[in-house]
Amino acid sequence: MSSFRRTLVPVAVLALAAALFPAAAAASAVPTGATPGTVTDFGVQQTALTVFEAHYGTGAENRPVVYGVQMGSPGVLSVTDPVTRELLDTAYLPDSSGAWGITQTADGTVYAGSYPNAHLYSYDPQTRTTVDLGAPVAGQTVLYGLRPGAHGRVYGGTYPGAHVFSYAPGEGFRDHGRMYAGEQYVVDVAVDPARDVLWAAVGTAGHLIRLDLGTGEKRDIWPEALRGDANYPYDINLVGGKLFVKRNKLQGLVLDPDTGAVLADGFTMGSRGTSPLAPDGRSVYFTSGTELWRYDLPTDTVGPVRDTTGAPVRGDGAGIGFGFLDGQLYAVIGNYAGQALRYDPATGASERYQLPFPPQALDINTITAGPDGRIWTNLYINGNLAVLDPGTGTAINVGRLGQADGFGWHEGRMYQGVYPYGGVLVYDPARPYQLGTNPHELFRLQPDGQNRPIAFASSGSRIYVGSTPDYGLWGGALTVYDTANGARTTRRNIVADQGVISLAVVGDQLWAGTTISGGGGTVPRAAEAKVFTADLATGEKTADYTPVPGADSITSLVAGPDGMIWGLADGEVFVLDPATGAVTHRLDVPGRSSGVADELVVSAADEHVYAALDGYLHRIDPLSKAVRTIRDTQTYRVTQDGEGNLWFRNGVKAANGAVQYGSHLLRYVPEPDDCPRSDLRAQVHAGGGSGVPNRYAERGCTVNDLIRDEAHWASHGAFVAHVASVTGDLVEAGLLSGGEKDAIVAAGARSGIGR
């Protein structure tokens, strides 16, 4: 159903779905009073467009339409007319956040395969009804690469089990099994219904499986020289008896579908695969960079398409869906603005325009507070950057950056770690935003085998970046970049087979935490996560420790208010003595590990340590280590502003553990603290040690704060009388025992204060 014919049938645009599931508007002004101990919801930060894939097919009464699957809360299937450029319908995919695959079978049914619940949805163009058909294979999070087969059947692939499945009305699901042992991704499939054969693109080690659907026989036809290469087959299309392959680093191949023999290579393909066979019976189209390219089937030649002037036919990005109408090629171009292209092979004429895919409220991926108090957010996958002024409660879209998995600040500038190419960019908020100029790329880590710069820290003129490896690879990296002279050192595999996901500068050392996870599609080789120290000048590792034996990840490290290193490992808080590397405390706080989003923050407002994990927000007393739960749900990606307020996004945890629907930005203001920068010595001092454990008394004041042995006293007697009065009040309040009071007063009496 990829090709379609134009039939002029007037169809009214229905707004029922939009009325039932309206897209959230951008954040508007909200009450911004910073009331201590409260949470303020600043609402949706951005609505934006992320179209994963488009399919040209037919709608009601055989009307030519484009079906697009979009990211949203929940995911969206949009129906537009490519000629009149109308939005005809918006269907929602409950419990999903989007879909990576969409197709239409011969009976007219449209199918979408979702994430993170990995369900298959059907859409009836005649009745405009959507049905959740369920999960084809248990335990999966993503469905990929939907393709139609014979007799109304649809096929697709899965992650993380690398299965192929099929669905047919009246029969239901069929699991065709794992395509390659040890692999996690089947990212696309191609189907030959006439021969009952399917091809599965398997990542991340690089395999292309030919599956005989009748016998179940599987053969890997991926060229021998490419096997084991992490540049694996990503998009595949069977057109004119030849198999078109785009590898995940955009190299294009054309293969014999039975033997894997290479028929053509040496070109770049950026699009989500190719067009169907053109009406001329010999042409196949795709995009390379921003240009439209053509492959000639009889001659196996490939090159750019030219217009009537001889100039390349350009789009505004990569093609994500192609179809033909009245001999002309139509394409949806790019994921983020609804761009489209029309090209007439007969005349060479082309046109670029937009389709009205509806923007949606999208998940916040990363949050950071700037030195001026404004709060910056970046959208998951979409990559738009927005900034909120807490004083007005208004968020504005700054521009598209790319998916930032980490932010850092140094001398008023924002450092940005962008996936999937491992880019590290620098942005000056005081100057106009212009991607490529401000921000501009300092370097990229993909050549060093990295794709996610996650952790940032700084000291002096140096920026430190912790990163995780690319798909199919092991070994993260620590990068040191000197802002004064542009020198960079990247130390890959600084801890063998582990990624670097948390950083903190404490004293004259850099402290770092690792994860045993490799890049996407890999199984860990290491046994337990480490904390290591590195030289601030060179980034060379100086020591390593195992604070929580058996932990998979150490997602956060901070300099504690008590002079210790505090960390978070698999949902457990630990306290480490920086002088010896010994762990002095371990706290198993409520909530399970939820990955790199787990954070520790030492509040500048009350000196308490806050732990955010699994939706919880906990407040930890740095003296007693007592844990108080502030929130038990919808708290993710916590960061802190200069006043000690905590900022985070919301989110709903799905049954499989995935967190979605996190488009709102919220602020928690810590409770009142009458004693900023509290005295956190472990025991109470009254001119000397008393042997009594120090503790918090009230309104953020410790016993040491109330004793005030650092103050000037007119006489020794006045100081001792003050100590006796304060400790007497604390006994009455139940915070000290009588014996503890006597020990503190005795220490004051022995002291020389006021003498």
TrEMBL record:
UniProt KW keywords: Signal
Keyword flag Hydrolase: no
Signal peptide: 1-29
Signal is among the record's keywords: yes
Gene3D superfamilies: YVTN repeat-like/Quinoprotein amine dehydrogenase
Protein name: Outer membrane protein assembly factor BamB, contains PQQ-like beta-propeller repeat
